[in-house]
Design goal:
- It comes from Jiella pelagia.
- The chain has 265 residues and is α/β, with parallel strands linked by helices.
- It folds into two domains: 138 residues, Rossmann fold (3-Layer(aba) Sandwich); 81 residues, no CATH class.
- It has ten helices and ten strands.
- The strands form two sheets. It has a six-stranded mixed beta sheet with strand order 6-7-8-3-9-10, sandwiched between helices.
- The longest helix has 20 residues.
- It is globular, with a radius of gyration of 19 Å.
- It binds adenosine-5'-triphosphate (ATP).
């Protein structure tokens, strides 16, 4: 018997409605709509240049679409910037690692706690009691994450010395440290070997299962997408051409034509 999910898939938490994004004459996204449901793992797939990263950049406020709206928890994000979006419970990782290479694993993860810290620079520098207490609490939270991700043995290692797969895991840890409701993961498995991919999949599922975190991930590896996603949205030339459970999307003729490259019978 399949075990019931601790956090069943719920109502839409993120609603992308009719967004269009142009760079001069280039149409990166055209009239795109889809919903992401609370607690689901949602994959965004599509060929190179289909608009996946641009879409993620619109969702977390790096790009402002010329048309359409994006709503988080029912609230349309009007003036979105990465900071505002983060405060509203959304965090993202990047296709190319964005870690501080000379800093330890723990300190990199601590960066993700920034939003939860109120002490100013001076009170930290002077080691005022409130600042010390806050830092202690945040470090303890990061220690929990390090343990959860099974990377305690490298907690003090500078990130630049770690193999790529572990660096990606540290990035996931930093995103987790934000305690966001939604994590946007831009190619979390890019450049990984089979074993590292399997490990990352396990932790994505574990995060979703234990904390109910909604995940939106861009991924090229079809095996991974089909294995771990609840739903998949397929982009081609900046338009949605498929949206549904993996099995449905996999059987869709338009998707096969555009992306999977399977010949017609
Ligand atoms: N900053 C930019 N300036 C100009 N054009 C851009 C910019 N960012 C993306 N584009 C263009 O928008 C389109 C969509 O690009 P995007 O990177 O979003 O696709 P993608 O699906 O993420 O591709 P990939 O799988 O290769 O990462 C492409 O034609 C790309 O050249």
């Amino acid at each position: 018997m399949v075990e019931a999910r601790r956090f069943p898939i719920g109502e839409p938490i993120l609603e992308v409605k009719n967004i269009s994004l142009r760079f001069g004459g280039v149409r990166a996204i055209t009239d795109t709509s889809f919903n992401v449901f609370r607690h689901e793992i949602r994959a965004i797939i599509g060929p190179n240049g289909a608009g996946k990263s641009s879409l993620l950049n619109c969702i977390n406020g790096i790009y402002k679409p010329q048309e359409g709206t994006i709503a988080l928890n029912g609230e349309v994000l009007d003036k979105i910037s990465p900071n505002i979006v983060a405060r509203k419970g959304l965090s993202r990782t990047f296709q190319n690692l964005a870690l501080f290479k000379r800093m330890s694993v723990l300190d990199n993860i601590l960066v993700g706690r920034k939003l939860h810290m109120s002490a100013n620079f001076l009170s930290v520098a002077l080691r005022l009691p409130e600042a010390v207490r806050e830092e202690r609490e945040n470090r303890a939270k990061c220690e929990e994450i390090v343990e959860f991700l099974e990377i305690s043995h490298i907690r003090d290692t500078p990130v630049g010395r770690l193999p790529y797969g572990l660096q990606k895991k540290v990035e996931l840890g930093r995103a987790l440290a934000t305690e966001a409701d939604i994590l946007l993961l831009d190619e979390p498995m890019a450049g990984m070997n089979v074993e590292e991919k399997r490990d990352m999949c396990r932790f994505i599922l574990k995060v979703n299962d234990e904390f109910g975190t909604t995940m939106v991930l861009i991924e090229h590896d079809m095996g991974v997408v089909m294995d771990i996603s609840d739903n998949v949205v397929v982009l081609d030339y900046g338009k949605v051409i498929g949206d549904g459970p993996p099995d449905e999307v996999r059987a869709d003729r338009a998707v096969i034509d555009a992306y999977l490259g399977v010949a017609h019978d």
